[in-house]
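Consider the tokenized backbone below.
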């Protein structure tokens, strides 16, 4: 992994820890609902990203990054949902949005780079 990819992975890791931290204060009745889904979606982002870089074929790598991107979009919806349901503070939401904005731009850039690579 190059410096850009390491920074992206580090930011994804920070986001997963953020999600785990904020979901600790969610209502107990959401333990098997929103809490579980939000944690799994955020963890899926970084795990699929890492697994993709363990693959040698560009098309396979791209597939894992696309799965990571899908989970990422799911986690953004859950972040927005949790704000509306008042499961998290506006301050926590803003921190989450800052992280997702950064991850989204970087992950999209990685996907575009792989797309160009598969076409050449």
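A designed sequence for it:
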């Amino acid at each position: 992994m190059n410096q850009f990819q390491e920074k992206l992975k580090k930011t994804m890791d920070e986001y997963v820890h953020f999600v785990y931290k904020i979901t600790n204060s969610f209502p107990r009745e959401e333990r098997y609902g929103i809490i579980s889904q939000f944690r799994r979606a955020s963890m899926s982002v970084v795990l699929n990203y890492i697994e993709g870089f363990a693959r040698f074929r560009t098309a396979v790598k791209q597939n894992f990054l696309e799965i990571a991107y899908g989970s990422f979009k799911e986690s953004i919806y859950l972040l927005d949902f949790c704000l509306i349901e008042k499961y998290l503070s506006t301050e926590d939401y803003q921190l989450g949005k800052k992280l997702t904005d950064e991850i989204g731009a970087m992950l999209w850039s990685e996907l575009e780079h792989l797309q160009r690579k598969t076409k050449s």
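The first helix runs from residue 3 to 23.
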